[in-house]
Amino acid sequence: MDNQTPSLDYPDYLTYRQWMNHALELARMAGEAGEVPVGAVIVDGAGNIVAEGENRKERDQDPTAHAEIVAIRTATQNLHSWRLHECTLYVTLEPCPMCAGAIAHARLGKLVYGVDDTKTGAIRTVINIPDSPASNHRLQALGGILESACREQLQQWFASQRLKQK
């Protein structure tokens, strides 16, 4: 399936919105903690939360502590498996190359994200890792869920950071 045109029926869309709202709440908490506000939730095929993550780079002093990586690490520990093919990852911002690689290696079943990242987006905006010949996994991906809310949250956080620097 082309990662830019998955089918969207109404019940799925409501589910996508529900989980993206949850990811937005995690992103809000990250922003309040001084992190770039990105949140991630991994849900299994039965609709249960398997893991949550939020950016923790500053708090953990770990350049790999992106919301997606934090969530993937927790999910694999909780499920006792690195294969997450039955799971969906919801994240507020399009994953970067590092996270897109981790998503492929974790064999996530689906990725749903909020807003495109025009600087480092590695799902479809800047580069397309899932459809690259270098990828060992074909990922179903859907962007644009609660896009305005995700964009606004990031823009407001960065604006507040610029004000603090003045």
From TrEMBL:
InterPro entries: APOBEC/CMP_deaminase_Zn-bd (IPR016192), CMP_dCMP_dom (IPR002125), Cytidine_deaminase-like (IPR016193), MafB19-deam (IPR058535), tRNA_aden_deaminase (IPR028883). Zn(2+) binds at residues 66, 96, 99. It catalyses: adenosine(34) in tRNA + H2O + H(+) = inosine(34) in tRNA + NH4(+). Binds 1 zinc ion per subunit. Signal peptide: none annotated. Its EC number is 3.5.4.33. It comes from the Bacteria. Residues 14-142 form the CMP/dCMP-type deaminase domain. PANTHER family: CYTOSINE DEAMINASE FAMILY MEMBER (PTHR11079), TRNA-SPECIFIC ADENOSINE DEAMINASE (PTHR11079:SF202). NCBIfam families: PRK10860.1. This is tRNA-specific adenosine deaminase.
